Amino acid sequence: MKKLKRSARLVELTQYLTSRPHTLIPLTTFADRYGAAKSSISEDLTIIKEVFEEDGTGELLTLAGAAGGVKYIPKLAKEKAFSFMEEICGQLGQPDRLLPGNYIYMSDLLGQPAILNEVGKIFASAFADTPIDVIMTVETKGIPLAHATGTQLNLPVVLVRRDHQMTEGSAVSINYVSGSHKSLHTMTLSRRALKEKSRVLIIDDFMKAGGTIQGMVDLLGEFNATVAGVGVLLESGSVDTDDRLWADYVSLAKVTDIDPKNKKITVQPGNYFENDPN
Q: pTM to 2 decimals?
């Protein structure tokens, strides 16, 4: 039991909640922890709730009743997310990022915890109201994005591999066709990694025609699982909508033009912001 001044209690309450997103915490937990009346804890939570909502950093949901409690839902306000992604688009549009084959170098950004944390919050905001059991991605660059999103949604991450690993045990493997290069590839998922009939959120770093996404969707079919949503950090604008193998997705950024001769890359916020960013 901790006896704290109210100001200190507010700080610790906030830290406790934000470190346990999407977790229902009974009020008695806080009452016992701080030796305070539930009415006092309720007043503290009201203050925190107002700050979260005014700052656009999340929501605090209160469930009444004997089995009730409070739950922190991480969310990033659309205007803040838009401003952040404009900065990321500026970095992705730097001429020195253009690689042979018109690929864009982005591994350095995917290695920065501050960026991953914000991207995870945006994906968590986009799918906050969607019933999800697990997050799936394919190795390798989608891994940090999936884990950042999983942290904000408090969900486990399942990794699809390009090649079967003996340490994964028995696995399901499928062949899929790349939507952009029309070449045949293989992906595999351990039978122990995913429960039957799971609701899966797919997260990936880049999508061109959607061949990899479609491959993961087909793989989910082998587990009788359903697609709860698809989120990609960056999509290519060079593919017509009718030519995409998967059409229902959320993108945070979009490459609208690549001029290899002049080393120019144009990147803008993705379809998540197509409606009013406010």
A: 0.91
